[in-house]
Design a protein that fits this description.
Two copies of one chain form a homodimer.
Chain A lengths: L1 H16 L2 H13 L3 E2 H7 L6 H13 L3 E8 L3 E8 L6 E5 L5 E4 L5 H11 L2 E12 L1 H6 L2
Parallel strand pairs in A: 4-6
Antiparallel strand pairs in A: 1-3, 2-3, 4-5
Helix pairs in contact in A: 3-4
The first copy, chain A, binds a DNA duplex (30 and 30 nucleotides) through helix 4 and strand 3.
DNA sequence: TATTTTTTGCAAATGATTCGCATTTTTATT
DNA sequence: AATAAAAATGCGAATCATTTGCAAAAAATA
């Protein structure tokens, strides 16, 4: 049953609801592999789409679970929402204060800690946001 | 030398640079014990100060290390910056999706993990932001 | 092919935060 | 204490990321 859904129905559904805009958003996010905000994506599309359309597309993709997002306050470009392709396992990122890029931390360092917290505080945790801020390897090596 | 600074100079400096506005901001944040955003504080001051003055005061307090802040996207009130009194040890918070309040998690569950990450990725971590989202104990107990 | 639904572009609206500027308050100088 | 200089405030306007209304264009359905 679930196989049928994944193999057969899901692709059709996907095909049906993917407009050129949304298709392109997924392409860009897949190609770049790092969290991107709306204006970054807008530049990348080379004006193929209006910024409002890009926002609408990103929101559609998020509510339909193709992408996920988080807000981040970059010292260079301010508070903005960043989008990434949604994968099996969620990812966190570290943000470099020098070059202002994100680097993925594939494995979540909170795996075990979360259930401890749930138990200790009687809190049901649905999501968690973790972002590191610092100096990335590249900037640490090149700058003295 | 450092003792002289802490015992003598710091209080004078504190006294000198604390305006009524900034004094009140610290009072409110101390009294409430939870992260508060500017408009929440504004309501709490009962119109004693202009909202712009409150923002200026909060920014002053943050750059002078009296308070720290983070941006959070509350599903009820949107993306806003929240401020807390800066303490010896930093705190993280969990945010309830039902009652939209924050609960502190006094001990940071990342203590050890961070140095591992630094080593593995060659990244120098200056700060980290962690927020949990879910259902708080109170809402979990009262709602069926 | 006609009709309904969805998506898009454009311009205007929104909402949190910041800024300019004139006024008031505080601090430093005589 | 009186005055000059510096900092803080209130108000309104500006900013910037994001959203929204609306009419036109494109896609889906009958």
């Amino acid at each position: 049953m679930i196989r049928i859904f994944i193999d057969y129905l899901l692709p059709i559904f996907y095909f049906k609801c993917m407009t050129k805009n949304r298709e392109k958003l997924l392409m860009i996010l897949n190609a770049n592999k790092v969290p991107m905000n709306a204006s970054l994506i807008y530049e990348d599309t080379k004006d193929s789409f209006d910024l409002a359309t890009i926002y609408r597309g990103l929101n559609y993709l998020e509510t339909n679970n193709y992408v996920s997002s988080f807000v981040f306050d970059c010292k260079e470009s301010g508070v903005q929402r960043y989008f990434t392709i949604k994968e099996e396992s969620h990812k966190h990122y570290m943000h470099c204060e020098k070059c202002h890029t994100f680097t993925a931390i594939p494995l979540c360092p909170l795996k075990n800690a979360l259930s401890d917290i749930e138990e200790e505080y009687g809190f049901i945790v649905d999501e968690h946001y973790l972002t590191l801020r610092g100096i990335c390897r590249h900037c640490a090596e090149t700058t003295l």
